[in-house]
Design brief:
Helix content is 19%, strand content 38%. By secondary structure, the protein is an alpha+beta fold. The strands form three sheets. Strands 1, 3, 4, 5 and 6 form a five-stranded antiparallel sheet that branches. A three-stranded mixed sheet has the order 2-9-8, with no helix packed on it. The longest helix has 11 residues. It is globular. The two termini are 21 Å apart.
Length: 146
């Protein structure tokens, strides 16, 4: 139904909620054979909005899918391409986009946070425990370039 391109992660700057995602974390996520298979099979989905009570993707709420493995930019950001799917949520997403709404993405995942030396505010997301379930469209992203 359409294609969205843009920044999906920043591995230089922390998010607005004080989380720092390292370049190593994103390499770990997208070099994982299971994640590569999910992307190849068009099964790395996202919903319209983040659910509050679960990390797994609900197949009835899918709006988009990651079309290919994201590319690391020289700007310290991860750039991705998504296909909007012909689902009820995908049609809402397309209508929002065509209406001029800002479309943002945010990763839905689980993992531990670790302190960052000499940084009392932000926390580092642990790449060894991080599990990405999907990348959702949201109204309030963790960082504004998303």
């Amino acid at each position: 139904m359409g294609r969205l391109t843009g920044v999906i992660a920043d591995f230089v700057n922390p998010t607005r909620n004080g989380r720092k995602y390292s370049e190593k974390l994103w390499e770990h996520v997208f070099n994982d054979p299971i994640m590569q298979e999910k992307i190849k099979n068009r099964c790395c989905f996202g919903e319209l909005g983040h659910p509050a009570d679960r990390t797994e993707v609900d197949m009835e709420k899918i709006a988009l899918c990651l079309a290919e493995v994201p590319k690391k930019g020289k700007d310290g950001k991860l750039h991705g391409i998504f296909d909007i799917l012909d689902t009820p949520a995908g049609r809402i997403l397309k209508a929002m986009y065509e209406g001029g709404a800002g479309i943002y993405v945010s990763t839905r995942a689980a993992g531990r946070l670790k302190p960052i030396p000499n940084d009392p505010v932000n926390r580092l997301v642990d790449s060894d425990s991080y599990y990405l379930s999907g990348i959702d469209c949201v109204l309030n992203p963790g960082f504004l370039q998303a």
